[in-house]
Amino acid sequence: MKRYFVWLMAALCLVAFSATAFAESASTRIKDIAKVQGVRSNQLIGYGIVVGLAGTGDDQDATLRPIANMLMEFGITVDIDDIETDNAAAVMVTATLPPFAREGDTLDVTISSMGDADSLQGGTLLQTPLRAGNGEVYAVAQGAVSTGGFQAGRPRKGVQKNFPTVGTSPNAAIVERTVEEDELGANGSLSLSLSKADFTTASRVMGAINGQFGNIARAANPGRIDVNIPSYYRNNVVGFIAALEELPVTPDTIAKVVINERTGTIVMGGNVSVDEVAITQGGLTLRVTKDTEVSQPSPFSPGSTVITSNENTEVKEEKANSIVLPATTNISDIVGALNSVGATPRDIISILESLKASGALHAELEII
Questions:
Q1: Same domain, yes or no, for 216 and 123?
Q2: Could you tell me if residue 12 is inside a domain?
Q3: Same domain? 155 vs 200
Q4: What tens digit of pLDDT does each residue of 127-182 get?
Q5: Model confidence at 14, in pLDDT bands (50, 70, 90)?
Q6: In which element (H, E) is residue 202 found?
Q7: DSSP string covering 109-160, please?
Q8: Same domain assignment for residues 243 and 322
Q9: Domain identity same for 213 and 152
């Protein structure tokens, strides 16, 4: 009896452990599905010149004027007709200014040719102001260009790997101006923005916050949760946000089937359900063969060689496979039933589209 009791307790502990592990695997952190409103990045862009190219620069005259203007800033006056642009290229420089970046921080930049340059390999980006959408300069970029590819031989006729007209320059931009942000939680509250608006998920996030800190959260809409900062966290807003982000939540998702017709890939969500339905799958195979016959005259006799072609057409109708799929919410039942009739990924795509059209498939069908 005692041994039976020990085994029973061990089994119960195992079940409890399995349930806990499942719950932990099914949940995620608020940090992974939401962000604090106001914490955002900003895009920067600038027009610059890459020099030092080995004859792979621009051939067009549009690059001449910026080069001449740049030289004038150094007190050098030149005639545009005397400038050769084979070793220079006009480029667009882009970067992302992360939130809370300070003066002196460095950014990675992407350099893209905007003319007819063949390659930016080996070039150097000259000092380029980077502006935000409001027209203000927030960073300045300058540095060597790394293309991650190459071009050998004559332009457009040699060997090329990757895209040598686009390159990067790590840490080439220096932040010159900080985007002024209001102090987080200055008014005693903050808002969380869900990465994907959903009523159920918003309600669960609100419940998780209120369960941990009391009644301080309110779901304003499916995509935003307003949170009042507790009084004991007013002087430690960063710590409060960190505590919020670590709270576990199980996000809800709609039933969806994603189909990629180009590759034949099918991805089904675990909550896809199907009503009872009968499926018949079969095919018609058409095969055309061509035989060539050669007829030659006897030796030393008048005549010529004659070549004739004979085409044979064979039609084979395969036996249709039929199954009855019972109403189920188990995705493995759906996949197993479709595989049992020998359906290929292309066939399954057609079957799923037909199921959706008939109303038997209770899921959103997305074709990419």
A1: no
A2: no
A3: no
A4: 999 999 899 999 999 999 998 765 555 555 555 566 788 999 999 999 999 887 66
A5: very low
A6: helix 199-213
A7: EEEEE-SS-S--TT-EEEEEEEE-TTS-EEEEEEEE-B-S-EEESSTTTSEE
A8: no
A9: no
Q: For the whole model, what pTM was predicted?
A: 0.65
Q: Are 221 and 229 in contact, with CB atoms under 8 Å apart?
A: no
Residue 335 belongs to a domain: yes
Count the domains in the chain: 3
Last residue of a domain, one of 199, 218, 249: 249
In the chain, the amino acid numbered 50 is V
Maximum Cα interatomic distance, the chain, rounded to a whole number of Å: 114
User: Count of H helices and E strands in the chain?
Assistant: 7, 23
- Whether residues 362 and 282 fall in one domain: yes
**Which helix (H) or strand (E) covers residue 211, if one does?**
helix 199-213
If one compares 242 and 70, the residue with the highest pLDDT of the two is 242
Beta-bridged to residue 279, according to DSSP, are 323
29 pLDDT more than 80: yes
- C-alpha 216/C-alpha 189 separation (Å) is 9
Residues 307 and 335 in one domain: yes
In a domain, 184, yes or no: no
Cβ atoms 216, 226 nearer than 8 A:
no
Please name the amino acid found at residue 225. I
Asked if 115 and 90 count as a contact pair (C-beta separation under 8 A), the reply is: yes
44 DSSP β-pair partners: 95
**Running DSSP on this structure, what letter comes out for residue 47?**
E
Strands in 364-367's sheet, in edge-to-edge order, are 265-268, 256-260, 364-367
Domain that holds residue 113: 42-175
242 lies in the same domain as 262: no
